[in-house]
UniProtKB/TrEMBL annotation:
Superkingdom classification of source: Bacteria
One Pfam match: His_Phos_1
InterPro entries: His_Pase_superF_clade-1 (IPR013078), His_PPase_superfam (IPR029033), PGM_Phosphatase (IPR050275)
Name of this protein: Histidine phosphatase family protein
Transmembrane spans: none
Length: 226
């Protein structure tokens, strides 16, 4: 059977000085650091990263044959340098879009955020669905359909799908057989991270998680305890 890898990538850092829960709103683009993250992941996948220590693993050029992104600007901007690194045309798939959320366009929190207002509280009654947005099972259904199509498209090779944190994490949970209810603070899905699903034919055989742009994450260069 053909061995195929589907890389689920989260977009890079977004320019969002107001701290808005931007969701599916248009116009939210990558910050300067977000663009640097995208270029770093592109270089990593293309095998262009320069080893920094004698023990560093030699870079390997991945066998990427397709790059497909969510239609939202931040995902498109993240995917663009990856497609360019492999000389590919960037594809778009609506099924990779961010999860729908009632709190879109608001700040989210107890202090000055939307949670201080009682009219929003009924939206929080059921974390299993969740009651504040698109059902987890619906996110998994559309993401897995996109993954299946991408796997067939790139059969025997590798494909990059650029999406968003919650859809990627919930989809990973479905492959690993974990329940969907979770603590958002414990998601292993940092900015510009890559969750790689491996398939033997149409059979899922495992996954790995990497952070090629870890050095660019907020706070990465801070001294411990500072």
């Amino acid at each position: 059977m053909a061995l195929t890898t589907v890389h689920l990538m989260r977009h890079g850092e977004v320019h969002n000085p107001e701290g808005i829960l931007y969701g599916r709103l248009p116009g939210y683009h990558l910050s300067e650091r977000g663009h640097a993250m995208a270029r770093t992941v592109a270089a990593h996948l293309a095998g262009e990263r320069v080893p920094t220590t004698p023990d560093d693993v030699e870079p390997v050029r991945h066998d990427i044959t397709h790059v497909i992104a969510s239609p939202l600007q931040r995902a498109q901007e993240t995917a663009t340098p990856i497609a360019a690194a492999f000389g590919l045309e960037l594809g778009t798939d609506e099924r990779l879009i961010e999860a729908g959320n009632y709190f879109e366009g608001m700040t989210f929190g107890v202090g000055d955020g939307s949670l201080r207002h009682p009219q929003h509280w009924p939206r929080l009654w059921n974390p299993w669905r969740p009651s504040w947005g698109e059902a987890y099972k619906d996110q998994v259904a559309r993401m897995r359909a996109a993954i299946d199509d991408a796997r067939r498209l790139a059969e025997g090779h590798e494909v990059v799908l650029v999406s968003h944190q919650l859809p990627v994490w919930i989809t990973r949970s479905s492959f690993e057989g974990r329940r969907y209810l979770h603590d958002p603070r414990k998601r292993e899905c940092s900015l510009a991270s890559v969750t790689s699903l491996r398939f033997d034919g149409d059979r899922y055989v495992g996954l790995s998680y990497t952070e090629p742009a870890a050095d660019l994450l907020p706070g990465a260069n801070k001294v411990a305890g500072a």
